[in-house]
Fold this sequence. Notes:
Blueprint: H1 3-11, E1 17-24, E2 28-31, E3 37-44, E4 47-51, E5 57-59, E6 64-67, E7 73-76, E8 93-101, H2 110-113, E9 119-121, H3 129-144, H4 149-171, H5 176-182, H6 184-195, H7 203-210, H8 214-225, H9 229-247, H10 252-258, H11 264-275, H12 279-285, H13 295-298, H14 306-314
Antiparallel strand pairs: 1-8, 2-7, 3-6, 3-8, 4-5, 4-7, 6-9
Helix pairs in contact: 3-4, 5-8, 6-7, 7-8, 10-11
Amino acid sequence: MDVLSDVIMTMRTGRPHSGRGTRSAPWSRRLTASEGAGFHVVLRGGCRLVPERGEPVVLGPGDVAFLPHGTAHELTDAPAAPAAADGGRHGPETVLLCGAYLLDRSRAHPLLSELPEVIHLPASPGRGSPLRAAVDLLASELEERRAGADAAIPALLDTLLISILRTWYDEHADHGWAAALRDRGISAALRAIHDDPARGWTVAELGARAGLSRAAFARRFTALVGRPPLSYLTWWRLTLAARLLTDTDAPLAAIAKRVGYGSPYAFANAFKREYGLAPGRYRLARSLPARDGDPVAEAAGTRLTAAGRRAAVRR
């Protein structure tokens, strides 16, 4: 599996949720911090996104705002709009498409954690036709609610997330993980690790996948990824193990083997060093009930229902 898909699948918990809503000025909506990642798309009109830290962002028609860290923020039609003036009925209308992805921050990957608090992707000619297509399809499904919408909407939300991230990485490919994904050799080595994390990889073998000498590969990998190759391999194995402990009832011995450990004892020691808990205690601690709906999606008037939360826990 490619690295970006693998990372998203590992961090995601449950199903994403979204909604389409119309606000008439004056209006303002304050959104508290969240464990998830949220987005806002302006379909018509305009508004301002005011993060808890940082400068306000003016959003126009077609603009996409993505908050990968669930940052607290306010949406408002104008700088002077009071926070209590939510949903007035007399001024210009703004149509918003908002949603959220539930994430497990204990399994945070630098591919997502190094992103800025707010990503603003203004609508502009030639920018991100796949992103525009994902927005248009999702908006249509939410508005029309035709047969099959319950299956189509989660898939389109996944497509939207990938399109947002691809657009951002394509435009910021000069450093960090964005550069690692664009580097032909390092991305080949990363894909090898993610395709077969249980394999006993050596730096020389990974370097061969990258088409570099052992020393040159180790230097370049560390510079772009932020840790040496085998350190990243160990960390990713334990991140996968954390997901398996949370999402499956597989025995510890089976999980240890699946992520490349020859014995449950060696796996347990490595896992405790990384997470501060033995695997069994980690599994128990992670079996708590799911949280309520994400406030980002509530900006468009939606809320994850109790039935939806139960479905999310089962996934």
